[in-house]
Amino acid sequence: MRYRAMEGFTIIELLTTLTVIGLTLTYAVPFLNQTLNSLIARQDIAELKQAIASAREQAVHQSQQVTLCPLSGNACDNDWNAELSMFTDNNNNRQLDTGEILIRRYRQARTEATRSYTGRVISFSPTGFSGINTGSFGYCLRYGDSTDDVRSDSLVISRLGRIRPGTDSDGDGIFETASRRNIPCR
Q1: Phi first, then psi: what are they for 165, rounded to 5°?
Q2: How many angstroms separate the CA atoms of 161 and 132, rounded?
Q3: Which residue from 113, 115, 139, 168 has the fewest beta carbons nearer than 10 Å?
């Protein structure tokens, strides 16, 4: 009688393989989570930059004052985490009046994100200028319980209406406004 050799893994080989997989996942999952949150933050800030640039384009294209702000009723509000609205603002009164056109709405901020702006409105004249002062738009994404679990970014809007990325000049991980103060990350 001839015996065939058993084929398969021994218990030692199986346990070793499972241990290696477990250790790999222990180190890989937090890195993947951080990478995913970084991609989410980049996408959100790119959408905000596109919204601001689009407001400027609409102002120049339509030769009208165009405002981007969070609306409460028909008036601009300070809650930049709310849905943002872009509209023609012919009388520059920071509210959507009869006869003015609602051009577009942008979704509200994610629940784990904070958006802020140094003013009440982002408004562009028919020539594409944004007003008297430079403004800064801040974005923070919290993805953990620690104060270090924050991905931030900022956009600086010049008086000429140009948009440039903000900086983290002090290296603390929180981007600053044009006046070099940290954007608020609540």
Answers
A1: -70, 145
A2: 11
A3: 168
